[in-house]
Amino acid sequence: MHRMPVVRTALATATAAALLAGCRAGSVTADGRSQDGPQARTSTSAPARDVPRPHRTFTHKPRHRAGHPPVRARPARPTAQVPRRGTTPRVAPAVIAVGSSGERVRELQARLRQLGLFGRNPTGYYGSVTRASVLAYQRGHGLVATGSVDRRTWGSLRSRSRPPARDELYPPTSLPLAEPDRRCLTGRVLCISKSSRTLAWMINGRVVSAMDVRFGSQYTPTREGLFQVNFKSRDHVSTIYHTPMPYAMFFSGGQAVHYSADFAARGYAGASHGCVNVRDKKKIASVFGQVKAGDKVVVFT
């Protein structure tokens, strides 16, 4: 008995059922399984969209309009870490601060100078040089290095130095006088140091008066050596540069010790043409009245 028509009929029936169920066309085996997937749908009882799906959790993604950048979720803020107490050293209030001036600053500078930490004479102004000296003292004595003087620093400094004398508080020159050249130790001498930029009027090794001076430039240097005062001119005017040279005391050709209004106004920003400029008019006027022709002039480095 031939059964081939029954098989064909069964295949045709299965194929029609698959098309009615909504499945895509594909080869189907004799037992009703599709060869396009592991489990083809053979039931016609319900369409594919009614098959229950496993539960899923969806993350909302914000939409954005065309032409605008997408909205991004803000990252979580890190939790602020509160610093532990005592980790930052407490800075004590200053009793003498940078930028201040007056008698107390002079005392501070004089005491630092006694300890070899301040290389200038007291000026009464707390600037960068004084701050550097205070820092050096604080670091050398285990104090908080701030550059300003608090009560602890001030007490420590006072315990390690002596009360300064008036000459230490009000020195005659901006820079300390240099150790005098041996040629300055006898007789009447204008003892002039290029390294300290000072002039000392000395008689038999004793300093009578001292003052700040400046010298010639690199191209017109002040000559060094042992000289003597050749002549004096109270209201002299330079015949070369046509500039005033009050209280001039000539010692080497056209080079002289004299008052300079430019030095008084500009300080060390300028230079002379070889002369020894003095900026304190009152002091040089007094020395001019004491110096005599023939007195020694010593210029040394």
Question: What's the SSE blueprint?
Answer:
Blueprint: H1 4-20, E1 94-96, H2 103-114, H3 128-140, E2 149-150, H4 151-159, H5 166-169, E3 188-193, E4 198-203, E5 206-214, E6 225-228, E7 231-237, E8 244-252, E9 255-259, H6 261-266, E10 276-278, H7 281-290, E11 296-300
How would you characterize the overall build of this protein?
- The protein is an alpha+beta fold and 301 residues long.
- Helices cover 24% and strands 20% of the residues.
- The chain has seven helices and eleven strands.
- The strands form two sheets. The protein has a nine-stranded mixed β-sheet with strand order 6-11-3-4-5-10-9-8-7. A two-stranded antiparallel sheet has the order 1-2.
- The longest helix has 17 residues, at 4-20.
- 23% of the residues are buried.
